[in-house]
Amino acid sequence: MQERLKELQGEALEKVSAAMDLKELNDIRVAYLGKKGPITEVLKGMGKLSAEERPKMGALANEVRDQITQGITAKQVQLEEAQIQAKLAAETIDVTLPGRPVHTGNHHSLTRVVEEIEDLFIGMGYTVAEGPEVEKDYYNFEALNLPKGHPARDMQDSFYITEDILLRTHTSPVQARTMEKHEGKGPVKIICPGKVFRRDNDDATHSHQFMQIEGLVIDENIRMTDLKGTLEVFAKKMFGEEREIRLRPSFFPFTEPSVEMDISCMICSGEGCNVCKKTGWIEILGAGMVHPNVLEMAGFDSKKYTGFAFGMGAERIAMLKYGVDDIRHFYTNDSRFLKQFSIHE
Ligand code: PHE
Predict the structure, then answer these.
(1) Between these two residues, 44 and 252, which has the higher pLDDT value?
(2) What ranges do the domains of the chain cover?
(3) Whose C-alpha lies nearest to ligand 1, atom 2?
(4) Residue 256 assigned to a binding site
(5) How far apart are the first and last CA of the chain?
(6) Is the CB–ligand 1 distance for residue 309 below 6 Å?
(7) Do residues 266 and 299 lie in contact, with contact meaning Cβ atoms separated by under 8 Å?
(8) Nearest to 135 by CA among 177, 166, 174, 178
(9) Tens digit of each residue's pLDDT (9 = 90 or more) over 215-253
């Protein structure tokens, strides 16, 4: 009996040490130490032993059990540890690997141009004014010296919503609204960026919706030379110090006199190329001295106050500044186009 117990101990410990995983170890435990196991079986024969031998055998059986239990516990710790190590090894991350580049969004090229122009004028003491895109005929046309039926309304084909409401065709109505708010008191010094809408067939240089930026200054003693000086600063800051400007006579119903401003071509510096159509000059914006009728309609005394205004298309400025050859690129959201304006690349 003693031998059988020792044999079982040896056998069980051998199996324990060979066990590959926790499940196998548990099976061994059940097989050897369970109620139906061989040790219990051996102990059943204890009745046949003498009173002297019985406690010895009992002690031995307990010892064998303890040995096997200890063996199993030690192995269990070992296997659990191994399991953790294997898991750690499998989940190792190489933190030195370079990361995958993530494309972060960036400001739209038009937003950048508009903000650049805003900053420039804010630096000259202007404030930014905004107004509604769905506008009253009164502010879009009438208050700007364009009464109903005026032929010059044809210069800006419009999207009407009702007889008296339309999508604004320019940002000049913001000027009319701002002047009205000032109740005849200067100075007014604003820059108005925003979306405008005109019935136009879209092509490389036309869009039925685009961004305009207009400026307005009203005060006592504002003269044409103030306009010219302001526009010159703008042209040089946006397109380079070596730019020259020229003013050509033009017509807008809300300014008198009216001009268009050209800048010397930044591609060929005046020698003649495709961008300036061999003239050496590029048209940039419209401007003029605020018409006395416009001042009076907004409640300003045109004998006391004078002013100048100018307006430009942000797309045109961006196209010239960045060499974009089709206005539609600004709206079709091709990420290859948009990404080129990221400050991170
Ligand atoms: N509002 C004019 C346009 O859209 C531009 C402009 C503004 C011209 C101010 C002169 C003065 O054509």
Answers:
(1) 252
(2) 2-90, 109-341
(3) 311
(4) yes
(5) 85
(6) yes
(7) no
(8) 166
(9) 999 999 999 999 999 999 999 999 999 999 999 999 999
Model confidence pLDDT, tens digit, residues 119-154: 999 999 999 999 999 999 999 999 999 998 888 787
Q: How far apart (Å, rounded) are the C-alpha atoms in residues 315 and 212?
A: 8
What's residue 343's pLDDT?
Answer: 66
* CATH H superfamily, domain 109-341: Bira Bifunctional Protein; Domain 2 (3.30.930.10)
| pLDDT at position 345 | 41
Q: Ligand 1 within 6 A of 72 CB? A: no
Pocket test for ligand 1, best of 153, 170, 255 (most atoms within 8 A of CB): 170
Whole-angstrom CA distances from 198 to 47, 128, 210 are: 112, 23, 9
In the structure encoding, which two tokens stand for residue 286, read together?
């419209």
Residue 219, burial from CB neighbour count under 10 angstroms (0-12, 13-18, 19+): middle
Q: How far is CA 120 from CA 123, 125, 231, 232, 318, in A?
A: 5, 9, 11, 12, 15
- Long-range contacts of the stretch 67-73 (C-beta < 8 A, 24+): 67/9, 67/13, 68/9, 68/12, 68/13, 68/16, 68/32, 68/33, 69/33, 71/12, 71/13, 71/16, 71/17, 72/16, 72/25, 72/28, 72/29
Q: Name the one residue in this structure whose structure tokens are 């961006």.
A: 318
Angstrom distance (rounded) from CA 52 to CA 226: 127
